[in-house]
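sanity check this chain:
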Amino acid sequence: MEPKGAYMGVRIAQHRSTLLIVVLIYFIVTFLIVYQPVGFFEPDEFCYYFSARNFQEGRLSLTADELSRQRHEAGTISPLWPHDLGYVHYKDHYVLVKAPGYSSFLAMLRVFGIERLANIVLAGASVLVLLWSGLYCFQTKSEIITATYLLLMTPISLIMHYRVYMSDYASAAVLFLGGMLVLIRDSAWIPSRWLDICLHLATGFLLGSALVLRFTNGLTVLFLVVVHLYFTYKPRCGTQFFKFWTGISLFLMAFLMPVMALFHYNVLVFGKMMATGYQLQDIRPQDTTFIFQQILRGYWLNVYGTIIRNLTVLPEILITGMPWIVLVPAAMIWGYRHLDRRLYCILAGWIVTVCLVYFQYRMLMPHSFVIISRMYLPLIGPSVILIALYVHQIHQKAPAVTLVLVTVISIVHFMFFLAQVGVPFFGLLPETLFAPVRDVLGLFYPIPSPGH
């Protein structure tokens, strides 16, 4: 029987051309993003922009005068938004409402002057772990390329690559990295003790960081932690270098590192470990909340309204931001019948936990797919793997057709999004690109000019 290490060497050699294609896709996406000037679309972007700068300068809280000056500065950048900058009054100072994890990450990158590359770096790391897991999950080049392309070029994913001053993409990417390492450690042949140590530590640290970056990752993080513990207790294959409790101790130690950093921040800012800026907000019935918050406050009409709106409006929003999502139900049914049980458990459980959390969300601006579908970014990672495996089974040309459609939709959405924030797409506005289409249509049906 051929040694497994030799088998993996053959698999890597077979995918060299695939690696080149994936690298090309990554650099195309990087070029699309980095070439465009930064523009702000939501008030939250001002929050992360200024909080990262404050954290870099060592200011975890602000005085009234400091906040007033920064609000005025934000108004000079864009006068369209009410600029509270995401700070709320607490005792004699103002503290950040949002979780501090992403602001801290941006502050670290600001030291090196590369904060603009935050999402690009995380996207590159996501591609690497996807390729690594692909050596075990995917059988063909088409499956690997399809999964990678959808991961990077989904409309909302491409837009959120650009929006570096939002935590959505980073929190989803870190969650994806941790989840993929859970899958890799279960599926892969681990050749050495040191690699096993690194996998335990990296998985724990990434899942803990995903929780600190965004608290709503909590249910999915809990699911992945339980899966990792079970897979460590009952390994599928490979050599067990540690006893169960040794491996779990390494994992939990790494998991608690970012959590303890959050507790330390809370003590410095709030004077106690278990505290968040969200607790200081006065939540009104009309404000954006989750169903469980509405139930706790007795807003039962809002609960009903949220459920009805999500059932009727949300599908259209998700299809706009993630066109391939129409394939997810069929892919999950197919996966249940044909995929390895452990692989399917991770992917399906991941998808279900994300949906359980964000289906509760009361949409404040249901007309904007950019604002709503970005919250479902954690859904993209496991979904594109499942879809890549599924579409390859439908028809030989199905992956190519899927990628072409997603590319066209993504570029069009990205171009119109940039126009909304006042940034021309490579110097071209949408009306410039679509003027020829308008002229052709005008031959058959007269199109009135503006003002007539």
Residues 244-270 form the longest helix (27 residues). Confidence is low (pLDDT under 50) at residues 1-10. The two ends are 79 Å apart (CA to CA).
